[in-house]
């Protein structure tokens, strides 16, 4: 069994500096959790275990990340104590034997207390991320709609023929209009064989809605 020994030099052992591949990688890596930017088998700066990414401004393993987060969120560090006057050597074997020295090591290597979010802030952050994701989806849909090409004459003729066939076999067309966006319905009008005028834009939009359902049935 590995016994925790006092580390009585009043400083932590030097943490090996990580070599940067280039300045661009350095800036991006410091901006958040980017595991793909880590070098192979890069060690946690707290305990030396295999690191998984940037956590609270330092390259750490999942264990030290979780320990640091729980300590701050639950305000546990005032209750931590050390049998060796705060001089324990921390590695991946001894890290669970002295909470005080492990926490002091986290602070000494630069882990940032202010980056640990409480429950309310964490929920708010997740909500903001989800809202931004949905906003980007809507913006992409708008750009797609704005850049879609207009039908050529042959396509308009095909739409007209399908519209006539649809109206000749389906009398409940007006009921389906309520499923379409309000801004749809001001497109080109074409006469049908029955004497009615057909809104081709409305029909085109409705066919886009119906096609996936028809495909699943077929």
From TrEMBL:
Nuclear receptor domain location: 41-118
SUPFAM superfamilies: Glucocorticoid receptor-like (DNA-binding domain) (SSF57716)
SMART domains: ZnF_C4
Swiss-Prot/TrEMBL keywords: DNA-binding, Metal-binding, Nucleus, Receptor, Transcription, Transcription regulation, Zinc, Zinc-finger
Record-level GO BP terms: cell differentiation; negative regulation of transcription by RNA polymerase II; positive regulation of transcription by RNA polymerase II; retinoic acid receptor signaling pathway; thyroid hormone receptor signaling pathway
Top-level taxonomic group: Eukaryota
GO cellular component term, pick one: RNA polymerase II transcription regulator complex
Gene Ontology terms, MF aspect: nuclear receptor activity; RNA polymerase II cis-regulatory region sequence-specific DNA binding; zinc ion binding
Short name of one Pfam family: zf-C4
Keyword Zinc-finger found: yes
Recorded family membership: Belongs to the nuclear hormone receptor family. NR1 subfamily.
Protein name (record): Thyroid hormone receptor, alpha
Native source species: Nothobranchius pienaari
Gene name of the record: THRA
